[in-house]
C-alpha cells in the first residue's frame, strides 16, 4: 500500500521537474513575442540574431527559469523546515523530507532523470 503523503510529495516534485521550456523557445526561435507594444524592443532584438545566437539565448532563458524553480523550492523547503509550513491537497499533508533530502535536491535529481530512491 502506498503512502498518500509520499505520493503527494512525488507528484509535486515531478510536476516541477516537468516544467522546463515554456513558450520562450518558440517565441525566440520561431515567431517572436506576441505583437504588443511592450514586446517591440524584444522582437527587434530577436530579428538581429542569427539562429545559433537565438539558441544560446533560449538556453539562458531556460537556465533562468530552472533557477527560479530551484529558488522557489529552496524557499518552500526552508519555510517547511524552519517555520512549519505544510502543504495539503485533498486533506492529505505532503511528506517532508521523506528521503532525508531537501525538496530542491529531489527536484534536481528528478530533472536529471534519476529514479526515486524507493523505486
UniProtKB/TrEMBL annotation:
It holds the Pfam family DUF6547. It comes from the Bacteria. This is DUF6547 family protein. It comes from Actomonas aquatica.
Amino acid at each position: 500500500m502506498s503512502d498518500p503523503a509520499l505520493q503527494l510529495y512525488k507528484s509535486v516534485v515531478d510536476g516541477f521537474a516537468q516544467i522546463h521550456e515554456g513558450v520562450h523557445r518558440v517565441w525566440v526561435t520561431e515567431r517572436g513575442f506576441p505583437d504588443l507594444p511592450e514586446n517591440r524592443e524584444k522582437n527587434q532584438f530577436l530579428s538581429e540574431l542569427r539562429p545559433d545566437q537565438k539558441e544560446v539565448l533560449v538556453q539562458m532563458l531556460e537556465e533562468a527559469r530552472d533557477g527560479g524553480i530551484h529558488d522557489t523550492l529552496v524557499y518552500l523547503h526552508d519555510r517547511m523546515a524552519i517555520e512549519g509550513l505544510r502543504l495539503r491537497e485533498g486533506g492529505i499533508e505532503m511528506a517532508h523530507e521523506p528521503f532525508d533530502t531537501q525538496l530542491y535536491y529531489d527536484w534536481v535529481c528528478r530533472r536529471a532523470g534519476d529514479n526515486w530512491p524507493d523505486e
